[in-house]
Structure formats: C-alpha cells, structure tokens
C-alpha cells in the first residue's frame, strides 16, 4: 500500500509543534528524529526529517509528497508549491527594520541603502514592486547584528515578539508578510497519496478546530435561561438539561478561545453558576 511521504523540520522552531500535531491526530511514529526518516505505526505515513529551508526543493522534485513548513519559506523559495492548510503555530512576520536613530518616513528612504537578509527573493519582490533600488547582503543568521557592525543600513528578518530587534537597537518599519506553519503539497503528488493527504488534512482540521474551542457547562435557574442562551452561540444551539433540583437547568455549549473571557463575564452577569470550561480534543463539524 502507498504511503504519504511528509517532511518535518529536523530540529528548530517547527519540529516540536509539528510532531505534537501528528501525535494529537493519533499518529504514532516509530523512531526519533536522529533517524532521517521514520514510519508511522497506524497511518500510511513516512516522516522525513529535513531542514526547513531545504523542504521546497524536496517538494518540487517530488522526493516528499507533503510538508509542514514555515509559510515564509514558501514565499521565499516555493511560489509554485501549494498550501493545503494553515496550521496556526509558529506565527511570525518578515519585516524591514532599521536602527532606532534612522529617521524613516517611507520605503523610499531605502533607496541606495544596504539591506542584510536571509530572504533575498522576498526583499527583491518588495523592492521591485515599490521601484526601489538597494544593495542586498545575503547572510544566513544573526541578521539583526548587521547594522551594528556596519554591514548594512537596514535588515529584513523574522519578527515575532520583537525582542531581538529591541536588543539590537532596531525598529520595525515595514511588514513584508505574515507567516505561520502550513501543510504544503508537492505539485507531483500522486492521486493515491493525495487521498491520504486529504485524510491527514481532515484530522488536522478537527484537532485545530478543537484547539480553538472550549466546551462550557454551567448551571442556571430556569427564569435566566433565555438570557444565558442569548450570550452562548454554540455549534447549533446549546444543550439544556434539567437538574435534579427543581427549577434549575444545566447548559452545555462550545465557545471559541477568542471570545472566551467576554462570554464568561456575560454568563456570570446573567446568573450562571458552577461554570466549567473543558478543552476539546477533536471537533468534527
Ligand atoms: N521567533 C520566531 N517566532 C515564531 N516563528 C518563528 C520564529 N523564527 C522563525 N519562525 C518560523 O519557524 C520557521 C523555522 O525557523 P527556524 O529558525 O527553526 O529554522 P530555519 O532557520 O528557517 O530553518 P532550517 O535551519 O531548518 O533550514 C521559520 O521559517 C518561521 O516560519
Ligand atoms: O521577535 P523575536 O521573538 O525576538 O524573534 C525573532 C528572532 O527569532 C528568529 O531567530 P531564532 O531564535 O530562530 O534563531 P536563529 O537565528 O538561530 O534561527 C529570527 O531569526 C529572529 O532573529
Ligand atoms: Mg530561526
């Protein structure tokens, strides 16, 4: 039987979350990451541990059928590769930053300047679109140090919390793109492997939806039910069950993590008691 070959970062920021997602969808992998590849025990999947930056080429050549990769690497090196599903972790930006002392007004101030980056294609796209001519210095790491050692006037690199920029006395001035980990597919994937990829994607979607949601249970007097139901959206409508105590009900519903605290405040204000909030492992809708 055919197996889907999936690339996962060997080590780095994507590795642990990628392996956790595979484990959360019930797939157990035989070997650790010291092996270059490992088979799943209970799903037709083979995991290849590779460098994030090398994965677009492996996808393009059909060496792997799919990958978990940073979207920013696809923008940089894999415009021809399709994103199947956004995965919600490793969120970051690719931004232009300049020394705090640089009186930056607009991207026109970059004309004729030296820009250090590990993402030359992303930078060139931006420069060409804005008709700016600048000199690129391509370096593989510690890009934020470049202005301080006189190598560049500006940098383009990944920004997440902003603390690396802060420590290096830099400020973010333009966001070129926003990125997160994605599930990507090879343009050469076979029909049978695509069918496996669809099954994997379906499992990813249900775990990711579950991660974004909470299951809420609460008790309320029956005369408050209408008010409470109006602040609980639920998947279809909330479940209402009678309690053993006369005149009281238990209400069950699902809410998203974003609206969580606002909804809890509203529930309390409307007379809810004994509110329980539980994580959801999978959500199949
Ligand atoms: N500080 C950060 N916060 C959030 N996400 C990040 C951060 N830095 C990088 N990422 C995301 O994680 C991906 C992997 O980053 P990491 O630094 O581990 O590896 P890399 O240098 O891109 O790749 P590799 O060495 O495997 O080729 C990046 O492509 C980006 O999408
Ligand atoms: O805005 P922040 O939260 O500070 O994150 C941004 C930093 O994180 C990444 O580096 P990483 O720590 O992955 O080190 P690396 O250069 O070895 O990849 C990136 O290259 C930035 O330097
Ligand atoms: Mg990094």
TrEMBL record:
Q: Name one GO cellular component term.
A: cytoplasm
Q: Which GO terms describe its molecular function?
A: ATP binding; ATP phosphoribosyltransferase activity; magnesium ion binding
Q: Which domain of life is it from?
A: Bacteria
Its lineage opens with: Bacteria, Pseudomonadati, Bacteroidota, Flavobacteriia, Flavobacteriales
Q: What does this protein do?
A: Catalyzes the condensation of ATP and 5-phosphoribose 1-diphosphate to form N'-(5'-phosphoribosyl)-ATP (PR-ATP). Has a crucial role in the pathway because the rate of histidine biosynthesis seems to be controlled primarily by regulation of HisG enzymatic activity.
Give the UniProt record's GO annotations in the biological process aspect. L-histidine biosynthetic process
Activation/inhibition comment:
Feedback inhibited by histidine.
Task: Outline the extent of the ATP phosphoribosyltransferase catalytic domain.
Answer: 51-205
This enzyme catalyses: 1-(5-phospho-beta-D-ribosyl)-ATP + diphosphate = 5-phospho-alpha-D-ribose 1-diphosphate + ATP
User: What keywords does the record list, in alphabetical order?
Assistant: Amino-acid biosynthesis, ATP-binding, Cytoplasm, Glycosyltransferase, Histidine biosynthesis, Magnesium, Metal-binding, Nucleotide-binding, Transferase
Write down the required cofactor(s): Mg(2+)
Coiled-coil residue spans: none
- Any idea of its EC number? 2.4.2.17
Presence of the UniProt keyword Nucleotide-binding in the record: yes
Pathway(s) of this molecule: Amino-acid biosynthesis; L-histidine biosynthesis; L-histidine from 5-phospho-alpha-D-ribose 1-diphosphate: step 1/9
Q: Any keyword Kinase?
A: no
Please state every residue range assigned to the domain named Histidine biosynthesis HisG C-terminal: 211-282
Q: Where in the cell is it found?
A: Cytoplasm
The name on file for this protein is ATP phosphoribosyltransferase
- Coarse class of the primary localization is cytoplasm
């Amino acid at each position: 039987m055919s197996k889907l070959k999936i690339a996962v970062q060997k080590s780095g920021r994507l590795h642990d979350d990628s392996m956790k997602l595979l484990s959360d969808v019930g797939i157990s992998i035989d070997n650790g990451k010291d092996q270059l590849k490992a088979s799943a025990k209970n799903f037709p999947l083979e995991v290849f541990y590779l460098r994030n930056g090398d994965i677009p080429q492996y996808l393009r050549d059909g060496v792997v059928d799919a990958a978990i990769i940073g979207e920013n690497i696809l923008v940089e090196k894999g415009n021809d590769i399709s994103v199947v599903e956004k995965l919600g972790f490793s969120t970051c930006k690719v931004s232009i930053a300049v020394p705090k002392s640089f009186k930056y007004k607009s991207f026109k101030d970059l004309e004729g300047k030296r820009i250090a980056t590990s993402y030359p294609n992303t930078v060139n796209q931006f420069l060409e679109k804005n008709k700016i001519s600048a000199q690129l210095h391509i370096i593989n790491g510690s890009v934020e140090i470049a202005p301080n050692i006189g190598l560049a006037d500006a940098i383009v690199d990944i920004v997440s919390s902003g603390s690396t920029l802060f420590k290096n006395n830099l400020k973010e001035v333009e966001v070129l793109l926003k990125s997160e980990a994605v599930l990507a597919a090879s343009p050469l994937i076979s029909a049978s492997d695509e069918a496996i990829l669809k099954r994997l994607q379906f499992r990813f979607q249900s775990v990711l939806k579950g991660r974004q949601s909470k299951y809420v249970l609460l008790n309320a007097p029956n005369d408050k039910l209408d008010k409470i139901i109006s602040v609980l959206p639920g998947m279809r409508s909330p479940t209402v069950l009678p309690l053993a105590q006369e005149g009281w009900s238990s209400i069950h519903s699902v809410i998203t993590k974003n609206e969580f605290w606002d909804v809890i405040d509203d529930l309390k204000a409307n007379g809810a008691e004994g509110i329980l909030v539980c994580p959801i492992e999978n959500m199949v809708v």
